[in-house]
Design a protein that fits this description.
The complex is a heterodimer of chains A (about 300) and B (about 250).
Chain A (H helix, E strand, L loop, with lengths): L8 E2 L4 E4 L9 E7 L7 E6 L4 E10 L6 E10 L4 E9 L5 E10 L4 E10 L2 E10 L5 E10 L8 E10 L5 E10 L4 E10 L6 E11 L5 E10 L4 E10 L3 H9 L4 H17 L5 H17 L1
Parallel strand pairs in A: 1-3, 2-4, 3-5, 4-6, 5-7, 6-8, 7-9, 8-10, 9-11, 10-12, 11-13, 12-14, 13-15, 14-16, 15-17
Chain B lengths: L2 E10 L2 E11 L4 E5 L6 H9 L5 E9 L2 E2 L5 H6 L2 E4 L6 E5 H15 L7 H14 L10 E2 L5 H15 L3 E5 L7 H14 L5 E5 L4 H5 L4 E6 L2 E6 L1 H10 L2 H7 L1
Parallel strand pairs in B: 3-10, 3-11, 6-9, 9-10
Antiparallel strand pairs in B: 1-2, 1-4, 4-5, 7-8, 11-12
Helix pairs in contact in B: 4-5, 5-6
The chains are: A mainly beta (about 300), B alpha/beta (about 250).
Chain lengths: ~300, ~250
């Protein structure tokens, strides 16, 4: 992986601070080459009032040795600030990665999150978004893959919590998953609306594809609503590839494998396309294509 | 002979739908298959394309001398069989352009030709979308997603033009089309007619056959072709219905 010529600022260490009113011209890239020595990395992102920034976080392994990483990141998004946060994980099948992410949003701030959990033996993700002041907006897009059999069967566990503390805030969650082999994927999505959080608009969608009879997917929407004046919706589906679409594509000459891959690409594309940086977006597309070939 | 169907029987979920279909199609010919609802028209189209939902229980189908029923869905397509779907399928997230690029190159490989360069492909796509007056912008959209009914049917004929089939089977391509869209679709089909390809048009209505003039009109009823005539048969069916034919059978 080489981001030379990507027009990106590599960040050493894990602290990004964008002062008041400043728009960072280029995305920040936090590249974590995890080794067994450094198992508790931290990242801290602060956008002061009116600031704007795009941050891309990559997790990968420095070498083939299994690692156990406990990663914590915190973001504070000031009043009227705009944060775009993309996170991509690519860990080995015997590694464990726990991500704990906390985003606090001030009034009228906006956060866009794109998460692609590509690879990892055990991946556990806890993301909490605090909509602490009014008119804040958070959009979260997630995509996970889990595959493998026996000891190498991957486990992915995604927990997202959208906490509506203040009135007039908006949150949106769309998390997609593909499980193959004997892998297990789990998604728990919470929408919490506090009593004072009037005129909350919150949506949550969980869309999942099962690629084998032995893979398992659990999806659990949780809505805790203590205010009367809200618009909340949620939906969850677990399905298989669309047979009629496979037939349609094969009738046009595509092999069965190509038709399956193309349908999976179609399934994941609308998440990856949320990545704000074209170069990184193409790069993640390519990684996802490789991943899909293995399923 | 391009296509020879001999005593074809087929079932879906244990129920026999086709009960001995015989049909021969030569290059250069257009065959229309008509018949009341539930007579097996769409089943015949699906079986020829290789839809796995249908089980062939008896009979044989020769395509260009080869055993068609032994061929996979994609091998049939690569060998030049095209099915225009009655209900074109939406494929979210897969762009028309990407889908067609793969399909065209498979078809070309089927003819022993090299893949098209990106520039050649774009030109082909522009040329062929003009044939059916399909907005070229749709090529950046997901396959059939958000397409109107007319656009979906035009898109089928567009794909047919892209893939240049030897045998096109159009399954009720006229259903749900207004008269302008019908004319566009029919004109597209006519432009693609050549002495070395053939078309099977499945339709409920005679009006499509005003535009796509068939050499033969067959009536399929209860899983069998009970009558074959020329284009005047379609006119007679339009005015008199099927009762006079069905009465003969019963």
């Amino acid at each position: 992986m080489n981001f030379e010529g990507y027009d990106i600022d590599m960040v050493n260490g894990g602290t990004i601070h964008v002062p008041r009113g400043v728009s960072a011209e280029r995305p920040f890239l936090l590249m974590f080459d995890h080794t067994s020595k450094d198992c508790n990395p931290r990242a801290s992102i602060t956008l002061e009032e009116g600031a704007q920034a795009e941050v891309i976080i990559f997790h990968r392994q420095a070498d083939d040795a299994p690692v156990h990483v406990d990663f914590m990141r915190e973001a504070v998004v000031g009043r009227d600030a705009r944060l775009s946060l993309s996170e991509i994980t690519q860990m080995g099948a015997q590694s464990t990665l726990a991500i704990s992410g906390n985003v606090s949003q001030h009034a009228c701030s906006r956060t866009e999150m794109m998460n692609v959990w590509l690879h990892g033996g055990k991946t556990k993700v806890d993301i909490e978004v605090n909509l602490a002041e009014s008119h804040a907006e958070a959009n979260l897009y997630g995509l996970w893959f889990a595959a493998g059999t026996g000891d190498l069967a991957e486990r992915t566990d995604i927990n997202v919590r959208a906490l509506h503390i203040a009135p007039d805030c908006t949150s949106f969650q769309l998390v997609k998953g593909i499980a193959a082999g004997e892998a297990v994927g789990k998604f728990t999505g919470l929408i919490h609306v506090a009593a004072d959080a009037r005129r909350t608009a919150a949506q949550q969608q969980s869309r999942n594809l099962l690629m084998s009879e032995t893979a398992r997917i659990y999806t659990e929407p949780r809505l805790e609503i203590y205010s009367d004046d809200v618009k909340c919706s949620h939906g969850a589906t677990v399905g298989q590839l669309d047979e009629s679409a496979l037939f349609y594509m094969r009738q046009r000459g595509l092999s069965e494998d190509d038709a399956r891959r193309l349908q999976m690409s179609g399934f994941v594309n609308d998440i990856i396309s949320r990545c704000p940086h074209d170069g990184v977006c193409d790069f993640v597309y390519a990684l996802a294509e490789e991943r899909i070939k293995e399923l | 002979m391009l296509l020879e169907i001999k005593d074809l029987h087929c079932s879906v979920e244990g129920k026999e739908i086709l009960k001995g279909v015989n049909l021969a199609v030569r290059e250069g010919e257009v065959h229309a298959i008509m018949g009341p609802n539930g007579s097996g028209k769409s089943t015949l189209a699906s079986v020829l394309a290789g839809n796995p939902r249908y089980e062939v229980t008896r009979g044989e189908v020769l395509y260009d001398g080869a055993d068609l029923l032994e061929m996979s869905i994609e091998d049939r397509a690569r060998a030049g069989i095209f099915l225009g779907f009655q209900y074109p399928v939406e494929i979210p997230g897969v762009s028309m352009a990407n889908f067609m690029r793969l399909a065209v190159n498979e078809r070309r490989a089927g003819r022993g030709e090299e893949p098209l360069s990106p520039a050649e492909f774009l030109k082909l796509m522009r040329d062929k979308s003009a044939v059916v007056e399909l907005d070229a912008k749709l090529m950046n959209r997901a396959v059939n997603e958000g397409f109107s009914g007319g656009e979906k049917k035009k898109n089928e004929i567009f794909q047919m033009a892209m893939l240049d089939p030897r045998l096109a089977i159009l399954d009720e391509t006229d259903s749900g089309l207004d008269i302008d869209a019908l004319r566009v679709v029919a004109t597209g089909v006519n432009k693609l007619r050549r002495p070395d390809n053939a078309t099977i048009v499945i339709t409920h209505y005679q009006r499509l056959l005003d535009y796509i003039v068939p050499d033969f009109v067959h009536v399929l009823y209860k899983g069998r072709i009970i009558h074959t005539g020329d284009r005047t048969l379609a006119l007679k069916l339009e005015s008199e219905g099927y009762d006079w034919l069905i009465g003969d059978i019963q």
